């Protein structure tokens, strides 16, 4: 089970990642944008307006300006290096979602951080943007990558073009579809499953892991529904 954005209360912060791991998540998912000076930082949105007390697009701010901000619960905006240092130390799966397609310098910074932190064995770089996934696969074919996909069905053959996993909307994760994706050699992650009916459906479909905002309730449910749970690997 993967903590979606860490936790909803402290999304894309180190506190959120720590809380998800402490509650029993085997991995965490978070989002990446780049600052004006080329530093990858964690944020779901292109601006800091919703999640911090600041204003403006991340791409127009330096890393030091972003780092000076605080969320409404008082947390700093972490760099990707900080996030992956945390996950690598604990051998947590880190699902790194690229929001934009990285430029060549941005791609270099991404790969440098992944390798410098020792996180490469545990990272899945994923994106809704197929061009972003393709860029990573061309530059670093040794990394685990995945397309993040919703709305329309996708075959295992199509999804396998983008990596070793598929991160798919829970509404598309039917038993037949999951069998097809597994036959193509893919691990299947599904998002965002937050309540027992969605967890039951994902279990019945045979997915490898769910992304959830509700880590502790999921763990309680899984103790009864699934028995001992295994850590999902990239």
Automatic annotation (TrEMBL):
<dbReference type="InterPro" id="IPR017946">
    <property type="entry name" value="PLC-like_Pdiesterase_TIM-brl"/>
</dbReference>
<dbReference type="Pfam" id="PF03009">
    <property type="entry name" value="GDPD"/>
</dbReference>
<dbReference type="InterPro" id="IPR030395">
    <property type="entry name" value="GP_PDE_dom"/>
</dbReference>
<feature type="domain" description="GP-PDE">
    <location>
        <begin position="1"/>
        <end position="222"/>
    </location>
</feature>
<protein>
    <submittedName>
        <fullName>Glycerophosphodiester phosphodiesterase</fullName>
    </submittedName>
</protein>
